[in-house]
Amino acid sequence: VQTFWEAYEYLNGDDAEPLLNHSCDSTLIAINLNQFVQRAAEKKQQIPLLTDLKKLLKNSRNRKFKETKAVSSAINRDYNKRRGFDNSGIENSARPETVKCWIFEA
Predict the structure, then answer these.
(1) Fewer Cβ atoms within 10 A, N terminus or C terminus of the chain?
(2) pTM of the predicted model, to two decimals?
(3) What is the DSSP string of 52-97?
């Protein structure tokens, strides 16, 4: 679990423009694990298998696991806004407004 959070800190970037934390609430961290695994592979970070991560993260103590659910993505909202997409989601290049995430206390 510690290795996951260290990789998350490295891969997420700064809080001003996060790359992995989809949460609009500063007290929560919302991570789509598939995106996490993809970004880790791009940056050549060694992480456990996704199935193992899912088992381990439910017991996270440092940042307590709360639930999995679809969240309104702050990352995708900002991405779409910067590129001039409206909320209709009709544009092919617009990112989805909601993303299924694992939610943790920040």
Answers:
(1) C
(2) 0.89
(3) HHHHHHTT-TTTTEEEEEEEE-HHHHHHHHHTT--TT--STTPPPS
